[in-house]
Design brief:
Elements (H helix, E strand, L loop, with lengths): L24 E4 L4 E4 L7 E2 L5 E6 L2 E3 L5 E9 L5 E5 L2 E2 L1 E8 L6 E8 L9 E8 L2 E2 L1 E2 L3 E6 L14 E2 L2 E2 L1
Amino acid sequence: DPAKFNYVDCQSKVSCRACDKSLYCGWCLYENTCTIASNCSSDWISDDCPSISNISPLVGYRFGGSNITMWGKYIVYHPGFKVLFNDQPASPVYWVKAESKKRIYYDQIIVTTPPVNNSVNEVEVTFWVGESKFAQASSIYFTYQDYIETENNTIPNYVIENGTPV
């Protein structure tokens, strides 16, 4: 009587959300692939996907340079990790470590916003590792303004030329 087994094709799944997280398949964080646990040299998760849940503040200067804190889970420091404000990349500044079995991963990152031109106000913020977009519970938007009012003062309006205040 021939042995019966179930064939599971984990590696044909190109995103964590598409990965069939069952008894066999899971998401290999650093390699950014769907695979079986024994083929993963980094943290392997079978219950969830890397995600960003919140960012703060949601408003910053049009000329960029605002530090934005982002919270999530299973954010891996990876050469292909990027945060985009529409299609403009932010600059990662600081990563906050979380516990890990095999590698360090993060649950918080601080980035610096890129500049935008005067015709842009609200942009979608997305998170990527290579060509895979992180899961988000809902779309996250960031608003650019020429000035931001605070309790004690108002920062002056700047004219933007080539992405820098003048």
